[in-house]
Prior knowledge:
By secondary structure, the chain is α/β, with parallel strands linked by helices. The protein is built from ten helices and seven strands. Strand 2, helix 5 (about 115-125) and strand 3 (about 130-135) form a beta-alpha-beta unit. The chain is globular.
Amino acid sequence: MSAAPDIRTVVREKYGEIAKGSSTCGCGPSCCGGGEGAAGVKIAEHIGYSAQELAEIPSGANLGLGCGNPLAHASVEPGDVILDLGSGAGMDAFLAAHEVGPTGRVIGVDMTPEMVERARENAVKVGATNVEFRLGEIERLPVADGEVDVIISNCVINLSPDKPAVFAEAFRVLKPGGRMVVSDLVLTRPIPDDIRHSVEAYVGCVAGAAMKEEYLYLIGKAGFRDIEVVEQRSYGDADVFGGYEWLREAAKAVVSAKVRAVKPR
């Protein structure tokens, strides 16, 4: 349970292993990788995806990494340009591609080369021409100013060691009047320092989670308005932390929240 010398490196390596199928992380299916196949489907249905949605994505896109379905509250329209922060193997990006149609476009950004490679392979499998995956960090997005209509993200921002930069970048790349809808894990009360500084708990999406009030404050500080929590559910009651008994008590402070915010016109 030692502190990580470079949290981005630790996260990139662990999620690279998940992309290659050599790890399921073990700290919980919510965002550390619950696996593919039946396990991934079960997790996805539990957090808000319909059977129809799951049937629309290419095999290998659902790694069981999410903690909610941000698209359920994104009001995506045909022709929109969508940006997925931390797109992983492409699950939400492919669902968004269905919604925006041939006149729209979806951009997925992920810092893990193995995830980007896997997502691109998935796109080739299904002949998706309106979705692309870019290698980059969500704190420094490889996206132009005002390029996108809607930003989505699924259980990724909690992993960033620089959340103000994430929200500032999101604000920058959105068009005026654009909206951001994220599903993420936040804390309802502080967690012990030993958990906060644990590598396992960080990759397990617990140690890096911000207090809910701080999370919403940072979104507002970046310039967003009309900030609202559109859905929230307990996460500590679910059996999502495998054999990591020392994480269970801390997990009771964690909730899955879907937050929507708008960039003023």
